[in-house]
Peptidase, M23 domain protein
Amino acid sequence: MEISPLRTFTILLCLYPLTLWGQTKIPEIPHNEVGFPLPYYSPVSGTFAEIRNHNLHLGSDFKSYGLNGHSILATFDGYIEEISYSKTGYGLSLNLYSPKYKLKSKYAHLHSFGGSLYDLELLRQAILLMGDPNGFQLKLPPGLFTTKKGNSLGKTGESGSGISHLHLEFRSEKGNINPLYFQEIHQKDTTPPTILSMYLEGDNLEKPILLLAKEKSKRKYELFTDTGDLFESITLTGKVRIRLSGYDFIRSRNKNNVYGMDLSVNGRTIFSRNFDFLAYEDGSKKHQFYDINRSSLSPPVYFYHIYEQSKNFKDEGFSLDLESYQPKEKLELEASLRDATGNKSSVSFVVIHEKNDTDHIRFVKNRKNGNNYSSLEGKISLDLSKAEVSGEGTLLINEISEKDIPFKIPAGLPLKGKIYQIDSKKMSWKGEGLGEWNIGYTPTTKESLYFYDSSIQKFQSITQKRKYNGFSFKLTKLGFVMVLSDETPPTIFPMTSLARYIELPEVRNHCFEERFYVIGDVGSGFRTSVELSIDGQTYPYEYDPDRRAIRVLIPKSLQKERPYLLLEAKAFDFAGNVSEPFVDLISTSGWAEELQASCPVME
């Protein structure tokens, strides 16, 4: 087998002796020796341990305001330990290592290594020329590229996944450290977390209670029932589970994950958790911290377990076991959310230890066969046998009338048939539930299955397949399913939320004019292929999944021939609807002064 020179070089570099790390989870590095990763105090746009598709977010994201090319700065003294590149995931990234404190920081989604270590950028370009242009991972000899805290290491970009931002991680031998653990990074946050709701389960409640939270005074919230009544006390018995929904603002409009949470009974703390550290093996176990059937990343809705959840997922945890208290004893409970600076918001209520059989909330019984659940008449079912099911409860699939749903069906999407609500009682699942819905006929092209997510209160896409008698589908969340007919065409417009350029001048390609056109659809979803022409001729483009837009690059050499360019585009959806033609008249005046002799010329 022939081994390439680059692969041989990589293997030799990997044979350097490994450094023996300390045994502490978080190295004892003085907080003032860890600096900010950017030359301006960018707000945090994504936080540690947030929900992602398969794993938890293991770092913090920092805003770059839609512009690539900002300098990234060394967070401490050290050397570059590793560089890598992939077309997905982290994109272009580097690892900075501190041998003194045995701490790594990882910078991801970079544009280049164009910082003070100029030879590092030359190495990147050489590797891509010599090796696989789709990706590489290279360990570097210790001390080859050394740097001091605050020095520039590269430029921000949007390589890998996501639009322009900087992703930063801190790693010890044992796992990942929340960047907000370091004072310089959480930037003296003065805004306490926001509490949205509380989800309460008890052994004598046939159905969990969702209580809405409203701020009574700064940092103090009150709870209200779905009928608007103030919730102050409840009689319960047995095991009680509390889930708290909320988020945190950190100098921006982004609804971030909180840093910690607490539960106290009669003033004594019985549960506390910090998102300051995650062991490497816990990065994929989001069910330990969140109700994953009710939580969401976009928009951010986090239902936190205010209790320890079993790592094997099979056994459901609990917040409080009332059997250890005296009958008729009154317990004052306070549940709180905290940020990294120590700001705290809380809700309080009283639990009376007494079984109250008259307080049950009635619901329609469902059929159950193992882990296969179905509605009363058997038209719709959800099979959880291939998912991991936790808890001793059941799944509820109940028909509900249109007048009783807590949302409005969008105009242009008429309802076809019934609406079913999918909820749970003292159980949850991890993975995909396999659903079947027999509607009694073969659905048309315009008819699709729609899902309204109860936790985020909006329609979300659902994996589905048309069948001769209805639909098969996959579900990971709780909410409402229905069949709607898509009678509304898609749209295509210029992306106005972006500046004219998405790169700073020092990293911009001056040879091309870059245009983005966003595609939207309220119905079955838009196709990523469009009909695009410039001056009547079919013109190439690429689809940007992060911006949900097409990206068009126009050579500035066309300025020599044409003072204007006429761009026309049409978008299509999966129901066969076609958008109105969009026309953009592009003026080429002003391109000449930026034109460089090295730019390609359009023939």
About this structure: The chain has four domains: 31-186, 194-353, 372-485, 491-587. DSSP finds three helices and 45 strands in the chain. The longest helix spans residues 118-130. Helices lie at 5-14, 118-130, 183-186.
